Every structure is written in structure tokens, then in C-alpha cells.
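Batch 3, record 17
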Amino acid sequence: MQTKKGKQCFLVISENYSEVEKTAISELSGCLRDAGYGIFLMKESELFKKSVNGDIIVIGRIESSSLVKEILNRNNINISRNIIGDEGYILKSYKNPWNKSKSLIVVSGYTAKSIIYSVFKLIDRVELLKEIPKTLNIITKPHFAVREWETQAFQGGFNLPYGGSVDRPIEEFYEVVKKIIRQAPRYGINAFQLTGRSIEPGMDLNWFLDYKFFPRLHKQFHKWGQGKRERLDILRKIATFGHKYGLEMIMWDHELVYPPEFLNAYPELKGIDAPICFSKPFMMEFIEGKVDEFFEIAPEVDGLNLTLSEVSKGGHLFSKEGCKCDKCMSFEPKDRILTVVNHMNDACKRNGKRLEVRTYNMTPEEGKVAYEAFSRVPEDVLLMTKCTPRDFYCTEDPNNFLIGAFKNAPQMVEYTACPEGNGFAYIPAVLADFYKDRISYAAKKKVAGLVARLDYHLQYSHAHFYNPGPAVLTFDLPNEFNIVAFSNLAWDPNTDMKTLWSEWASKKYGEKASPFVVSALSRTQEICRQTLYIFGFYRPHFLNMFSHLEHLMRAEEDAPHFSPMPWDPSNPKYRELYKKVTQPTEISLGEVLAEKDNAISLCKKSIEDIEKAKKYLSAKDYSKLKYGLDKERDVAEIWKWFLNVFFRHMMMVHNKKDYAKNAVKQNLNDAVQKFVLYCFALEKKYGKEYPVYPTARGISAYDFLEEMYQYHISKMTKEYNSIMKIWLAVMDRSKPTADDDFIYQFKLEVPGDINSIKFDKNNIVVEAKNGETLEMATGLNLSGHELVKGKKYFLKLERKENKINLIPA
Ligand SMILES: [Zn+2]
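Prediction for the assembled complex:
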């Protein structure tokens, strides 16, 4: 057997090997074949029967392979289990005794997992060098015992209606998840979470159960059980596949959550002023029954991961909301949580499974409850805590005070590689410095492990995220380096980031392009911080999308969504910044705009880097990188013009008394004009896509302006809808995606408390009874006769070049 280049590699394997090692050998063979090697598999006993004139790779466990033992002894390598533990490994190269120009590589450790990690490290090197490396001298063990990944591929309700945000069939997700699993041993990842979210309604225990232990509920099953067997089949296949790659497979569950028809089946559970009474003993019987049934039908799954937040239907255990009976009223949230955790843990344990529990919560008050509850969970529960106290937001947010706070049970810290809150994979956002910094902190706090969320379900949606074609994974984007950085740091928090960047970029984009690509992408963390946040702490958006005006103006009540200040209220820095944002002045607005300008100029530098790398990049890589960074610059700019509008709106609201006489109103009008024109430009470039339009969260830029004008017009007349109608029709006709064949027209009666409506350049000028006026910016210029009080009109909108004419229909 000769290959084109005549390269030969002999894989020498032990007499007995496990399923995991078999996977490792098969993946290595595939990689070597791709690198042009002819592969010869042989057992240890066969090796000395002939001289072997090629590269030799010996794969075997230290304790069971006499060949490995002999090679290590001969070279005075004595690696005890104390040194590398169960998951550490050896990867060393020597000279082939029969041909000194060829290598003899030892791939070893004490367990099947150590073998697969060592094999994948070798695969990694072969992929980088395009050949079997001549020098390898690695003896390593992981710093953190727990190193997990999670996928949100099953977070949304595919095969179920959910606003079209997830519109791929479940089989496609199965393939996506398998693709991710295959990458895991490359980084020494040892467990994998299948993340669900019952409220969306994604994967959860409910998805799979017949409730056969609860006959009254089981009878209702036909009403919601569609697709259950198909899902169960895929879950079990995924778990089995994960095991082959050395992964423990963990499935998410939310509590309290109950299925439809639950209260019809058990009316006696109804609470006082609430759907259910949490204090009824049946509730815990129900939770344990669910766990028992689940592991009976999905025995391949190794454990559950419990979340107690985001349970829209069911019970939110972090507060006392819900049933008002005496028992419930005296049942403290911390005790409710502990009760649920203990019951679930008991049920998991008797099924030979383990339980992970997320401490995730959204407010400092809930954080206190979390601390009190989770400080008492038993030591076999693995706690999971987000790296920052509020959700995955700004990279400058403080560390979560719950990290390292629990002495009773092990803890892992949760990160996002997608990354949520920093562009959501719409734009490049490589947070390498963030992971380095935060994982060093986690190491200092001596936590047991780390977990990264590799994706978000929206990423897999045709409808909102990407155009038709195969699902795009984080691995397919520059954001892949988030996964690489996180995972390497989980193995060794002291990983040299410069080398890691350079090796990753060389492999993905070529050695010559590498320094330019690294320079371009390493700026994106800072760009996202300056684009999507204000002064590194304030979040003026809803998951990177425009938010309802009402939400933004409720900053005080919803404070934890907007800034980390509620967790550190006396911090003078936060107080000062908070005031600057929520009580804006021309000076603070100037600072905000300068911050966005800075983000734009950083983007431009990164685009220049990519231009310099162009001659070294493939056409496809160049256009993908260029597109991503171009879009990043556009996002920075649209947020600049948006904040210009929003801040001026706040100024107008705060200056009620003199807003009519001063320039505040005119400034708002100019700001909207700029914003609208920029929205049109981006809509022309990207179509009805991000950033002007939202995905499954948030609203469009135009919707925001509509809400804002509605607010101002409603101060002038109760009949604000008749005036909004004009602005909306003009906007619809002006948008670059407007359908020219459609007839845009509207009927209206000018309200009695409005003197007139005029069309002046690019404004609709509304004059109220008291003489006060408001100009509504429209982007394009308008022409049309003045509309007057009390009269009825039926108007048609015609577009000529960049002008809209309003004429009688
Ligand atoms: Zn009750």
C-alpha cells in the first residue's frame, strides 16, 4: 500500500481497547490519510516480527501496554498516576530504531480519556504541520477537573411553533451536535450539556416523558405528546455518540415546570391566587417521578442540569411569588430551592446519575437567596455559576461574587463563546483576553471546573440569522477562537495566548495571513465593548438588538438588566456613569458619541489589516472576514446614531418645561434624520436583516422610532394614531426594500386638537392647538398640501427618485 508521496505510518495498538480508544484511532487514521499517509494498523505483538520503515505511533495505556512501558523505561521516563492523574497524558516522540529519519511516537496515559486527549493533540499537530511532527515532548494534566461544553442547538422549539425562529428539522440539529461533539476531545472536554429552555419551548424533561407514573396525567398525554418518540430517539443517539468521544452527557431541566393539562389532571394542586400550591407533598413526588421515568427511557444520559430561573409557566423559586396559603407563605425561597435540589439529587443518585445545578439568577436579591440555598446542597451536587453576576453582558462587568463562595459543593463557572451580549455571532467578537482574565480568576478561587456555551439556538435559524444553507456553527466563524481560547485555558490557565492565537490563525487562514488576521480579530472584544455598551457598563439594547422605548425608559426599575451597579451600588464609579447615561447632557452625549467613533476607527484598522492579508488569504476567507468586519463597523455606526436619538429623547423628556423654546427639539429631529438615513443605507446593503431588523428578540430601528414619536405626539393629541399613520406610510414607502408595485395609501381625519400637518423638506410638521410644533423626521424629502384641523383625507404616496409626494388617492 503506497500513497502518492510514499508516506507510511504504522499505528500500533494494544490487544484490548475501549470504544473511546477505538474512536481515537479511527479519527487519527482519518487525519493521517488526509495528510497523505498510508496507514497500517498492527497489534503490539506484531511490531517486532518485522522491521518497520516508516513513522510509528504506539497507542496504549501505561498500565496495560507492555510496549509503552518498555519504551518509557528505556528512555528513563517514569510517569506515575500521581503526576498526570486520570486525564493527563503523554505525547512524546523518539527515533524509529529501524530508520532514524522516521519517528516513533508514544501516545499514552492511564485511562481511555487520556488516550483520546493525547491522540487529538497529535491530530492537532498534524493538522498544523501537515505531517507527523518530529519533536513532541508533552507530559500534561488538566488544571480543572471539570471541563464542559454546552450546546443550545435544542434550546428552541423546532417541530413546534415558536415564531419561526427555529425552522430546521430536528435531524439537522442532530448533525450539528455530532459535529460539535467530535471536536470536544481535541481540547480535553470531558462532559457535554444539551441545553434546553422550557419557555421557548426547548428541550426539557417534559419533552420526553409519558408521565406513566402519574396515570391521571398520562391520560392527557395525547394532547401534547406529539414528536416525543422522535426526540427521545435522537437524544439517546446523541448520548451514545458523546460517550464514544469520552464525554459524559448531561441534559438540562428547568423547575418548577409542569406539562399542559397538569392542573386538569390534578385540580387539588391549585394554589391560592396562583396556579399551583408548592407546599403540597405531591409536588416533590412529581419531580422525583419525572427523573425516574426519564432515566428509565433514556438510560444513556449521565445526569441532569437543573435551572431554577426562566420558568415562565410553573414556579419561580427565587421569590415568594405564587401560592398564598399559610404553608407556602412560611416556606422561604432558599428552603424551596434546597428542597427541589435535594429531591432531584436523590432521584438522580438512585438511578446512578449525577446532578448539576445552576445558580443562575438575575438580581442581587436572588443572588442572596442563591447563596443561602446552594450553601447547603450536598457535596455530590455540582454547582454551575455564570462568570458575571448579571447575564452574559459586558466584558467589563465584575466577577460574579458567587464564584468560590460555596465550601460545601464543587463549582464550575459558565462562559459564552457565541458570544451572547457581544454581537451574538452576527459580527466577529473574539473575547480571548476576557477568558484569560476570568479563567485566571476562577483558578485563583479554586473552582472545580469551567463550562462554555458554544452557541445560541438563534444561530441555527434560517428565518432570522443566516440565509438558506447548512447551519453555521461558531466553529465556522472567526469566533471559533473563543472556543479554542476557553478550552485551552480550561486545561491550562497559564496557556500562552500569543502562541495560541498564532497557531489557530495559521491553521485557519494560513501562516502568512496569520499575524494580520490576529491583529484584526484581537481588536473585536474592545470594539464590541465600545459599540454595544456605554462606558463599559451600561447596556442600551436587548441582546444586541433595538429595545422597546418603554423598556429603555424603565432603567430604574429594571436596573439589573442595564448595568452591574445593583450588585455594587455604593461604587462611586458606577453612580457617576449611571447618572451620565440616565440624565444625559450635551457633554455626556458627546462622550458617548466619541466612544462609538472610537469603535468605528478600531473597525477601520481591523479592515486595513484584512486588506493587508488579502494576498495571503483565500478569496472565500478574505470575503468572509471583510464582510464580518464591515458589518461590525456598520453596527458601531448605527448604534452611534441610535444613541444620539435616544439620548436626545431623554433630554427632551427631562426638560419638559423649556423644551418648546430651546434647541433640544431641533436636535432630536436632526438626530432622527441621521439615524433614518443610516437605517436606509444598511437596509439597502443587508436587506431586512440585522442590525436594522431584529431576530427573535428586540424590535426594528423603525419600530423604536415609531414608539418614540407616538410618545411625543400623544402629548399633543389623544388621536395620535391618525398622525402616526402618515409617518408610518411615508417610512414604508421610503424604505429601500419597499415594493414599488404596491399602492401606498391611507385615510385620515386630522384631530380637532391639531391645527395643521405640513410637509416640509424631510419633515412632517405637526402643530397643536396651543401652537406647539413637533417635527417628525422622515429621511426622504416630502411634498404635499397642508392638512388642516377636522378635515378628512385619502392620500396616496408616490415616490419619484428620492422624494415622496403625497397626493389625493
Ligand atoms: Zn400553597
